[in-house]
TrEMBL record:
<protein>
    <recommendedName>
        <fullName>Bifunctional protein PyrR</fullName>
        <ecNumber>2.4.2.9</ecNumber>
    </recommendedName>
</protein>
<dbReference type="InterPro" id="IPR050137">
    <property type="entry name" value="PyrR_bifunctional"/>
</dbReference>
<feature type="domain" description="Phosphoribosyltransferase">
    <location>
        <begin position="6"/>
        <end position="148"/>
    </location>
</feature>
<keyword id="KW-0328">Glycosyltransferase</keyword>
<dbReference type="InterPro" id="IPR023050">
    <property type="entry name" value="PyrR"/>
</dbReference>
<dbReference type="GO" id="GO:0004845">
    <property type="term" value="F:uracil phosphoribosyltransferase activity"/>
</dbReference>
<dbReference type="InterPro" id="IPR000836">
    <property type="entry name" value="PRTase_dom"/>
</dbReference>
<comment type="similarity">
    <text>Belongs to the purine/pyrimidine phosphoribosyltransferase family. PyrR subfamily.</text>
</comment>
<keyword id="KW-0805">Transcription regulation</keyword>
<comment type="function">
    <text>Regulates the transcription of the pyrimidine nucleotide (pyr) operon in response to exogenous pyrimidines.</text>
</comment>
<dbReference type="Pfam" id="PF00156">
    <property type="entry name" value="Pribosyltran"/>
</dbReference>
<dbReference type="InterPro" id="IPR029057">
    <property type="entry name" value="PRTase-like"/>
</dbReference>
<keyword id="KW-0808">Transferase</keyword>
<keyword id="KW-0804">Transcription</keyword>
<comment type="function">
    <text>Also displays a weak uracil phosphoribosyltransferase activity which is not physiologically significant.</text>
</comment>
<feature type="short sequence motif" description="PRPP-binding">
    <location>
        <begin position="100"/>
        <end position="112"/>
    </location>
</feature>
<dbReference type="GO" id="GO:0006355">
    <property type="term" value="P:regulation of DNA-templated transcription"/>
</dbReference>
Amino acid sequence: MQNYEKEILNAHELDNMLTRLTFQILEKCTDFDNTKIIGIKRRGAILADRIKEKIKQFKNIDIEIGYLDITLYRDDLTEISEFPILRGTEINFDVKNKNIILVDDVIFTGRTVRAALDAIIDYGRPKKIILAVLIDRGHRELPIQPDFKGKYVPTSIDERINVKLKEIDEIDSVSISKMIK
């Protein structure tokens, strides 16, 4: 078997997409005193940092940010590993009655977002949660849709979207891959 992989976004295109996502958020969100950003670890947290910086750059608004580890909220926890790796949640603000911008890299079945919603609710009841994702690849198993998406990439169920970010992978790119027999 060999792996077929095709780049669909280079570093420049990825940055442009994050800028577009940021402007979409700025258009919809008006109460930034009551708005917080939460990134789903790992890559969603990095994208959340980048969106936060773009908001600061374009509007001179410094939004508080938190990072969410959804590992223990997953509905497939017993299937993924006997000893899952916990990356720790860092939310140092009250979510009660706040507008939360939840950020992730890819939305697929919707189960990661469902787990994130459960985790956030354990911290309190936000006024509103909006979802921003870099890539929507379809195949939802739950009725969860992003409010903002950078790009919709139709995929087959056996394909994979690979988001690489320089903070982890030393390169910014998005590719689609498939194992070919």
